[in-house]
Amino acid sequence: MAGLSIWHVVIFAIVVILLFGTSKLKNLGKDVGGVVKDFKKSIREDEQQTVALQEPRTIEHQNVSADTNSTVKH
């Protein structure tokens, strides 16, 4: 039997809970969830920027961009 049985998983879970406690495991779960959420958000933003860069720009859009850049004080 090369695989893990349900009893192996249960014993492993009990040992982990005894070592770390439920509060630390809960905080770890929240932290990992937050990291995954931020990662997905950054991927979506990156895809939106890529799509925006691939769109053709018109002369009017370039003139508006030049006007807004010239009004910025350095």
UniProtKB/TrEMBL annotation:
Q: Where is the composition biased (Polar residues)?
A: 61-74
GO cellular component terms, alphabetically, are: TAT protein transport complex
Write the record's keywords in alphabetical order, separated by commas.
Cell membrane, Membrane, Protein transport, Translocation, Transmembrane, Transmembrane helix, Transport
What InterPro entries does this protein map onto? TatA/B/E, TatA/E
Q: Where in the cell?
A: Cell membrane
The lineage's top-level taxon is: Bacteria
Entry membrane topology: Single-pass membrane protein
Q: Which GO terms describe its molecular function?
A: protein transmembrane transporter activity
Q: Quick check: keyword Membrane in the entry?
A: yes
Q: Which GO terms describe its biological process?
A: protein transport by the Tat complex
This protein's assembly is summarised as: The Tat system comprises two distinct complexes: a TatABC complex, containing multiple copies of TatA, TatB and TatC subunits, and a separate TatA complex, containing only TatA subunits. Substrates initially bind to the TatABC complex, which probably triggers association of the separate TatA complex to form the active translocon.
What is the annotated role of this protein in its UniProt record? Part of the twin-arginine translocation (Tat) system that transports large folded proteins containing a characteristic twin-arginine motif in their signal peptide across membranes. TatA could form the protein-conducting channel of the Tat system.
Q: Which HAMAP family match?
A: TatA_E (MF_00236)
Instruction: Report the protein name in the record.
Output: Sec-independent protein translocase protein TatA
**Organism source for this protein?**
Acinetobacter radioresistens
Q: Which gene encodes it?
A: tatA
